[in-house]
Prior knowledge:
The complex is a heterodimer. Chain A is of the alpha+beta class. Chain A has one domain: 2-Layer Sandwich (Alpha-Beta Plaits). Chain A contains 7 helices and 11 strands. The longest helix of chain A has 12 residues. Chain B starts with a helix and ends in a 14-residue tail after the last helix. The chains are: A alpha+beta, B mainly alpha.
Amino acid sequence: MTCLPGKVDKALGLVIDLDTCVGCQACVTACKGWNDQGYGVPLSDQNAYGAKPSGTFLNRVHSYEVQAENAAPQVVNFPRSCLHCADAPCVTVCPTGASYKRSEDGIVLVNEDACIGCGLCAWACPYGAREMDADAGVMKKCTLCVDRIYNTHLPEEDREPACVRTCPTGARHFGDLSDPTSKVSQLVEARGGYALMPELGTKPVNRYLPPRKKGAVAAPVLEPLEAKGLAGWLDRILGKI
Amino acid sequence: MNPAPSVIIFTTLSGAGFGFLAYLALGILTVAGWPAFFLWALGYGLAVVGLLASAFHLGNPQRALLAFTQWRSSWLSREAWAAVATLILLAPMALSDWLGLGLPRWIGGIGAVLCVATLLCTSMIYTQLKSVPRWHDPMTPVTFLAFAAAGGAILAAPKLVAIALCLLLAAVLAYGWKRGDTAFARAGQTIGSATGLDRLGETKVFEPAHTAGNYLMREMIYVVGRRHVAKLRVIALGLVTALPVILLALPFPALAAPAFVLHLAGAACARWLFFAQAEHVVGLYYGARG
């Protein structure tokens, strides 16, 4: 049913630390690897070794340059995937009931057997979280690795999304964001975690932790260094020759 | 947004079809016998061909019937219901006109109301999307209705009414374009708010997330043709309004047919612009807007 659940028991989601993320793309690879064999049809690639490769991904890492006032420019790596919105517009637009939000944990999923591949949910998502698989003609999206997190066949430490498990810098955190005492909620509280484009009314669950303020740069950008001591004496002498 | 031919054909033909059917249902064009059969068939044909075209862009059209299940939340599902209900409820009126059964006109009136409801549902599929500011505007349903009213009127209404509705459509289009051109800026999303990095400073793309194209870019970050917008708008206005008005003003009733064909071509051109010009906020992540 594509009506949203009035209330969810949990709001599982990700907290992504933009201060720690180094943009290594390991989460992209781990996600693609796991979802090639897990939930639903595999994430396909087209012309993977040709001149114009293309493929379906549930997570993509962008890089932005941020210029703060009176500071050095900063590169911020920015992983982008489904935010498992509380008021998910992708769910309500679905004509077939394929797209749904689970009341037990808030995960937004696609029942691929009911998906007609109309693409309207991808249009409705402001975050580009959904991609139509070109081979299967059904919509793919982050499942929060629903086939890992409850999977008792896996060792307990592996029962988290593949992207979180693989992140070498610990920039990705997984947990219940509806519980104010959970680790992820406390992390959001402590670091001023924020939602993306909240003004669109989607009420995203995932949060991003802003990069920490960097200290002043050691030397003023593009200004000549002033040599001191012996080097300074040499500099003056050599300048006069 | 990607102006896929299937969606342009769908919205253009079924829009004109349901518009024309509404006029026939209301008895504004009174016909009987075989002429009635062919005119009703034309209306049904346009509507049905349009609806079938919409199935061509589906990834799995064999499951299309499932689209009738989610009418509680989905405008696309409501549209499916409205379209089928309209076509079924108009059938007695069509048969009555063709075979001279003399059914009361209010039966057609119900069908005409459903025609308008179908058109509204179609337009709401686009209007509901906050992620596409140009579409998320009252002018979207107004434009869809104005197209149906003018297109149907060229074939079915008295000449003066048809000319007036064509001129009204031109005004609606021009005003809609004017509003649409500032819609993205008024909605206020920027690369800074999309990433939340505006709290740090000015944000720009340093490196794209991937070196090849992907579904998002093909489907939602369509840029081809935007530089010809001004010319295409003039062409669209000429075809949907100027030429049909000239043909209708001439004292030959048969010219309504070429006027309608020209109008449809213009409607397709305007609908192409409707898609090609619409910008999705996901483009911000790719630096598509400042």
